[in-house]
Amino acid sequence: MHDPTEPSTPGRLIKAPENFIGPEGVRTVFREAQEGRRDFIRGAFAAAVATGGSAAAGRAAAQANPVPAAGGDPNILNLPAHTTGLGQGVVTDGYGRPSQYEKNVQRRQSPGLTQTTQASVSFAPLQSLFGIVTPSGLHFERHHQGWWDIDPSKHRLMINGSDERMLRKPMVFTVDELMRLPQVSRFHFIECGANSGMEWGNVAVPTCQYSHGMISCSEFTGVPLKILLDMAGADTKRGRYVLAEGADGSSMTRTIPMELIENGEVFVAYGQNGEMLRPENGYPLRLVVPGVQGVSWVKYLRRIEVGDKPWATKDEAIHYIDLMPDGLHRQYSGIQECKSVVTTPSGGQVLLDKGYYTITGLAWSGRGKVRRVDVSVDGGRNWRQAALQGPVMDKCLTRFTLPWVWDGKPALLQSRATDDTGYVQPTYRQLRAVRGTRSIYHNNAIQTWLVEESGEVKNVQLS
Ligand SMILES: Nc1nc2c(c(=O)[nH]1)N[C@H]1C(S)=C(S)[C@@H](COP(=O)(O)O)O[C@H]1N2
Ligand SMILES: [Mo]
To answer: Is the preceding omega at residue 345 within 30 degrees of 0, hence cis?
Structure first.
């Protein structure tokens, strides 16, 4: 079967459907302001400046956009019903949801992917998010055989060995039993190896939701796998690998090297952002493998086997491998290298007017922490160092910001991340020199957004 993670037309330029960008690709503030209230952003940043932010940024903003006098706006002069009347009682269905005005902030399916009878990838709306945490209801999804809402009282996790030398005492855990064991909570990103895959072929999907939205970041909670292996008497000197297997029909199985597990980093999660995992993200159990591509984060986790060599399963021998220019495939390239993307302004958004903006985006590295992010507004000729919002955590999204005064001329926005190993995110030219042009997975090249004189922002690649 065709893998829907693959672009439908690698190497060919496709055009998004005419009505595709629509208001949903555009952040609310930009859209509102576009519809006649051109001073909306000014008002918004004036408030931001008043409540703090860096002094330099505030000064730049004030110079670029003098605060308009507060005359004549009925929205400040007239008292609305919500100020004079009685509001609603508590939310009665017990579980809250976002404002009705935010209903365009949704997961979406990419126009660049093959449409199959059953959708199997949805992308997170990175352009609409703040900070580093992805709300669980907006976490991207990738299902190889559909998702299930599994009854946790019937779900089991088995720990066994390839033979009795690898592990002394095979065990079967219930979810309740796992939740009694020592627990950790950690923030990590999960990125599908195919994220930005279409850009290899210069498909240039219109928004950062589609170019980079197969990444999300959550606080996950669970029990370190090392604890379970010790309880089952695994011989981690002999057994240098584990196989993780999911309980859905895709037979999702991945080899994980023991060195990632021994240091306590890999854990069996049941929690996500303070509550149980969502069904589409693997409820009731999923493996968290920090820094490693999404496919190894096996959902509906039901079995861990300890062995002494990689299993070469279908999802590591023929999928998630990298076609190199010499025609050979590179396997087991699971760690997500350092990468970043500007999320505002980004493709599909429209800048209202010349003046002050906060350029912001996300950076991450599967090898550790983000050390710095540089931003260019002229296609990489000149760079300025962005500020990193804390906390900066290991194998976690890091938010960066940079103040920018747009002069109304075309601009080419880029971000370039460096991680704490010293690795610098490559340009497309540098990446293609090593990886060729026919790959699908593991594209961590620098993304470019073209801001046109009209204020419209487009996805482009510089050669
Ligand atoms: N059991 C199972 N685990 C799975 C998958 C799957 O289809 N079945 N998809 C994998 C892939 S390719 C990715 S990118 C991530 C996606 O996780 P998410 O749907 O929570 O975003 O889960 C991985 N784990
Ligand atoms: Mo994936």
So the answer is: yes
The CATH code belonging to domain 136-320 is 3.90.420.10
The first and second tokens of residue 61, run together, are 């903003």
Q: Tokens 């601009």 sit at which residue?
A: 411
User: What is the structure's pLDDT at 334?
Assistant: 87
pLDDT digits (tens, 9 = 90+) for 46-105: 333 333 445 555 566 556 554 555 678 898 899 999 999 999 999 988 999 999 999 999
List the domain boundaries for the chain. 13-49+336-462, 136-320
- Tally Cβ neighbours within 10 Å of residue 358: 15
Ligand nearest, relative to CA of residue 252: 1
Q: What is the pTM of this model?
A: 0.88
**Closest Cα to residue 215, out of 253, 254, 188?**
188
CATH dotted code for 13-49+336-462? 2.60.40.650
For ligand 1, is residue 24 a contact (CB within 6 Å)?
Answer: no
* 218 CB near ligand 1 (under 6 Å): no
Q: Does 192 have pLDDT greater than 70?
A: yes
Please indicate whether residue 140, judged by its CB atom, sits closer than 6 Å to ligand 1: yes
- 8 A C-beta contact, residue 246 and residue 302: yes
Q: pLDDT over 70 for what percent of the chain?
A: 84
Amino acid occupying residue 153: S
Cα 294 to ligand 2 centroid, rounded to whole Å: 5
* Ligand (nearest to CA of 141): 1
For 121-135, 311-325, 371-385, 415-429, which range has the lowest pLDDT when averaged over its residues? 311-325
pLDDT at 166: 98
123, 252, 256, 320, best to mutate for ligand 1 pocket (most atoms within 8 Å of CB): 252
Q: Which atom of ligand 1 is nearest to the CA of 141?
A: 19
How confident is the model over 314-324, as pLDDT tens digits?
Answer: 999 999 999 99
Q: How far is the CA of 320 from the centre of ligand 2 (A)?
A: 8
